[in-house]
C-alpha cells in the first residue's frame, strides 16, 4: 500500500492544513458528526462480525470538519459581501424570471413554480453547465431543471450516492477513500484498507444501515472553494471530499440505496500499483425503481455474453493473453457472418477494402498526434533502436494510403474500409469480456472528400446506420462530440467541421431520423465526431456501424439472449433422427449449419426425421420461436424446406418465420 499511502498522506495534509491549529476546546462540530477523542461509552449497534461503526471514529474526521468549518465561514462571508444586482433567468419555455445575483438559486425558482417540481428536480443547468440547486446565480443566464430520468441528472444523483457510500465506508472501516464516480448503472467507491484487510459480503448490510442513517439525517451537500484556490470541496455529514460536484441538495433525496457487490482493484487502474477494495452500489429516488432495477439485473445476468459464450462454446479468454479473445468455431461463424454482411454493404456503397500494417514507426504517431496525446493507450516497443507502436486506430495508416501518390479531385470522394486488427493498452482491471479488450478488429472506414462533399457523405453514413441497426432491431441516438481541451489543428478548421456536422444532423433528424444531442468537449483530439448510441432488448444503451466486431458480438449476444436469428446462428438447424435407420437420410440434408443428435433450445429449427419422412422425402420442422410447431406438425418436402430456410438466411430476417 506504499503508493496509496503516499498519495493519501498528501491529500490528508491538504485536508488537515499543514501546521494548522488543532480544534479548540469546545469547537463547534457538525450535528451527528463522529467525534475524535476517548472511546465513547455509548453502545453501538453490532453485527455478526463486530461493531457497526468504529468507536471512536478516526481522528482525521474531527480535524477535517474543523478545517472545513473554518474555511466555510470565511467563504460565506465573502459571498455575503458580494454586491447584489438585478438579473434575469431564462427558462426553456421562454419565461423570464427576475432575481438577484448571489441570492436567487435554482431551487428558489423551482419552488416558485411548484413544490412537486422542486422535489423531483435533481440538479440544475445554468448556461449549459450542471449547477447545485442551492448555489446562487452569479449573473443573468439560462436555467434548466433536470430530474433523475435525464442522463446528467442520473449521474449527479449516483455521484451524490457514492459520497454517502464513502461516508459509510469511513465510519465502518476508517479507510482511505480514493475514487468514487458514478457509472452507467450506479456508482462505486475505491478505498485503501489496512494491510491484508478486505471487504466481504457480510459488510453490505452494515454499510447500508450506516448509509440509511445518513439519508435519514438529510445531510446537506455543502460546497466550498477555499480562498485563493480553484479547488472545489463538498461536505455531507462527516465526509469532506475534494470534488468538482455538483450534488443533490441533501442526502434525503435518496429513497432507495443498496450495496450490490465488491471487488479488488488497482490504484488508478494500473496493475503496477497497490491493490484497493472497490464497493459498488445503486440508488434511486423511488423504492419501486430499485425493485425494477434488480429484476433487470437478473435478466441481464441470464443474458451475460460471457455466460452465453461459454455455454454455446463461442469464445474464451486465457490468462496468457489477457484482453485477447479466442473465438471457437461456432463463435467464428458469427464473426465471419457479420463481417461478410458488412463487406456486402461496403461494396454497395462504393467503399473499397484495404489491408494495412499492424505496427508503425513512432514518427507516424508523432505526426498524427497519437504519440503526444494517446501514447499511454498504445503498446510501444523498440526495433533496431527505433521506437514503434501497434496501431490503436486505422486513421494514420489510411492517410499513408491516400498520400502514397498524387490524387486528382476527380477521385474524390475516396472511400476505404478496413477490417484491421487494433491493439489498445487497456488497464488489466478494466478488461471485461468482449466489451473491453486489448486486441480487437474494427469495421473501420474513412472517406477522403472535399469540404463540399462532407454533407452528402455524412448522409450516406446515416443511411448505412439505419440499414444495419434496423436489420438487427436496434434504435439509435446521435450525439455531436465537439472540440476537447486537448486538440490538434486550428480552431477555424474545428469550427467549420462542427458546423458541417451540425447541419448534416439537423437535416437527417428533420427527415425523420429522430433527435440528436450536443456532447460538448468530448470529440477526439484530432476532430469532432458523431457518437452513436444503440438501445438493446433490456433498454440498455451501448456506444459502439459495428465499431469493434468483438464488442458488437457481445451486444448482440445479450440483445438476443443467445437465441440467434437464423442468418447469424452458428447452429441453424438441429437434425434429429428418431430412429437409427434414418441416419443415411440425415446426411443428405446437411446443406446449412447443422447440429446432430443434441437438443439445444437456442437452436432455431429442429428437423425431426424418421421412416415416414424418409419415405416421403420430407422433414418435420419445429421452429424455436413458434409454439404452434413445437408438437409434430405437417411434413414439408425437403426441397421446399431447404428453399424456405435458404430464403430466411439470405434475407437476414430477425423474425424467424418460414
From TrEMBL:
Enzyme class: ligase
Source species: Tuber melanosporum (strain Mel28)
Protein name: threonine--tRNA ligase
Key words of the record: Aminoacyl-tRNA synthetase, ATP-binding, Ligase, Metal-binding, Nucleotide-binding, Protein biosynthesis, Zinc
Keyword Protein biosynthesis found: yes
EC number annotated for this UniProt entry: 6.1.1.3
Domain TGS stretches: 85-147
Domain Aminoacyl-transfer RNA synthetases class-II family profile: 329-534
PROSITE patterns in alphabetical order: AA_TRNA_LIGASE_II, TGS
Example GO molecular function: metal ion binding
UniProt region (Disordered), positions on chain: 15-57
Family membership: Belongs to the class-II aminoacyl-tRNA synthetase family.
Pfam families assigned to the protein according to its UniProt record, in alphabetical order: TGS, tRNA-synt_2b, tRNA_SAD
A GO CC annotation given for this chain: mitochondrion
CDD domains: TGS_ThrRS, ThrRS_core
Compartmental location: Cytoplasm
One GO term (biological process): threonyl-tRNA aminoacylation
NCBIfam families per record: thrS
Amino acid at each position: 500500500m506504499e503508493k496509496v499511502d503516499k498519495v493519501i498522506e498528501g491529500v490528508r495534509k491538504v485536508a488537515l492544513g499543514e501546521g494548522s491549529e488543532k480544534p479548540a476546546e469546545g469547537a463547534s462540530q457538525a450535528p451527528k458528526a463522529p467525534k475524535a477523542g476517548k472511546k465513547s461509552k455509548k453502545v453501538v449497534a453490532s453485527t455478526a462480525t463486530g461493531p457497526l461503526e468504529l468507536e471512536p471514529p478516526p481522528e482525521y474526521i474531527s480535524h477535517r470538519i474543523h478545517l472545513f468549518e473554518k474555511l466555510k465561514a470565511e467563504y460565506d462571508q465573502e459571498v455575503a459581501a458580494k454586491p447584489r444586482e438585478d438579473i434575469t433567468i431564462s427558462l426553456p419555455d421562454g419565461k423570464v424570471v427576475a432575481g438577484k445575483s448571489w441570492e436567487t438559486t435554482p431551487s428558489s425558482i423551482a419552488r416558485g413554480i411548484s413544490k412537486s417540481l422542486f422535489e423531483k428536480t435533481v440538479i440544475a443547468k445554468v448556461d449549459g453547465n450542471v449547477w447545485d440547486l442551492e448555489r446562487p446565480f452569479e449573473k443573468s443566464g439560462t436555467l434548466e431543471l433536470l430530474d433523475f430520468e435525464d442522463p446528467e441528472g442520473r449521474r449527479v444523483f449516483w455521484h451524490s450516492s457514492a459520497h454517502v457510500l464513502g461516508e459509510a465506508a469511513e465510519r465502518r472501516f476508517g479507510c482511505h477513500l480514493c475514487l468514487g464516480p458514478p457509472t452507467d448503472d450506479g456508482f462505486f467507491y475505491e478505498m485503501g484498507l489496512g494491510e491484508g484487510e478486505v471487504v466481504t459480503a457480510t459488510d453490505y448490510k452494515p454499510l447500508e444501515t450506516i448509509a440509511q442513517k445518513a439519508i435519514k439525517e438529510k445531510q446537506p451537500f455543502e460546497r466550498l472553494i477555499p480562498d485563493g484556490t480553484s479547488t472545489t470541496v463538498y461536505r455531507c455529514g462527516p465526509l469532506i471530499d475534494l470534488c468538482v460536484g455538483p450534488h443533490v441538495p441533501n442526502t434525503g433525496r435518496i429513497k432507495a440505496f443498496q450495496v450490490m457487490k465488491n471487488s479488488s482493484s488497482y490504484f488508478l487502474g494500473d496493475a503496477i500499483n497497490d491493490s484497493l477494495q472497490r464497493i459498488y452500489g445503486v440508488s434511486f429516488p423511488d423504492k419501486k425503481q430499485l425493485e425494477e432495477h434488480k429484476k433487470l439485473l437478473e435478466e441481464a445476468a441470464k443474458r451475460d455474453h460471457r455466460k452465453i459464450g461459454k455455454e454455446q462454446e463461442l469464445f474464451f479468454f486465457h490468462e496468457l493473453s489477457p484482453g485477447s479473445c479466442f473465438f471457437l468455431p461456432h463463435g467464428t461463424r458469427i464473426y465471419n457472418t457479420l463481417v461478410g454482411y458488412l463487406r456486402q454493404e461496403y461494396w454497395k456503397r462504393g467503399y473499397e477494402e484495404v489491408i494495412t500494417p499492424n505496427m508503425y514507426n513512432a514518427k507516424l504517431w508523432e505526426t498524427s498526434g497519437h504519440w503526444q496525446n494517446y501514447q499511454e493507450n498504445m503498446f510501444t516497443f523498440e526495433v533496431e533502436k527505433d521506437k514503434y507502436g501497434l496501431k490503436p486506430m486505422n486513421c494514420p495508416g489510411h492517410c499513408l494510403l491516400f498520400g502514397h501518390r498524387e490524387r486528382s479531385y476527380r477521385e474524390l470522394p475516396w472511400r476505404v474500409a478496413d477490417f484491421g486488427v487494433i491493439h489498445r493498452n487497456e488497464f488489466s482491471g478494466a478488461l471485461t469480456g468482449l466489451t473491453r479488450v486489448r486486441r480487437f478488429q474494427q469495421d473501420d472506414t474513412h472517406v477522403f472528400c472535399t469540404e463540399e462533399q462532407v454533407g452528402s457523405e455524412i448522409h450516406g453514413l446515416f443511411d448505412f446506420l439505419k440499414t444495419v441497426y434496423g436489420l438487427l432491431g436496434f434504435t439509435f441516438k446521435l450525439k455531436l462530440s465537439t472540440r476537447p481541451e486537448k486538440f490538434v489543428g486550428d480552431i477555424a478548421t474545428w469550427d467549420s467541421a462542427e458546423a458541417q456536422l451540425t447541419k448534416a444532423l439537423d437535416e437527417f433528424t428533420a427527415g425523420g431520423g429522430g433527435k440528436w444531442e450536443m456532447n460538448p468537449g468530448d470529440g477526439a483530439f484530432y476532430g469532432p465526431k458523431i457518437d452513436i448510441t444503440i438501445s438493446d432488448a433490456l433498454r440498455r444503451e451501448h456506444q459502439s456501424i459495428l465499431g469493434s466486431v468483438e464488442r458488437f458480438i457481445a451486444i448482440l449476444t445479450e440483445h438476443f439472449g443467445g437465441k440467434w436469428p437464423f442468418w447469424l446462428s452458428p447452429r441453424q438447424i438441429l437434425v434429429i433422427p428418431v430412429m437409427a435407420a434414418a441416419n443415411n437420410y440425415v446426411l443428405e440434408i446437411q446443406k446449412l449449419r447443422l447440429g446432430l443428435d443434441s437438443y439445444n433450445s437456442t437452436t432455431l429449427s429442429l428437423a425431426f426425421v424418421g421412416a415416414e419422412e424418409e419415405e416421403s422425402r420430407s422433414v418435420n420442422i419445429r421452429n424455436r420461436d413458434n409454439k404452434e410447431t413445437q408438437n409434430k406438425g405437417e411434413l414439408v418436402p425437403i426441397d421446399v424446406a431447404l428453399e424456405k430456410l435458404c430464403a430466411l438466411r439470405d434475407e437476414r430476417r430477425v423474425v424467424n418465420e418460414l
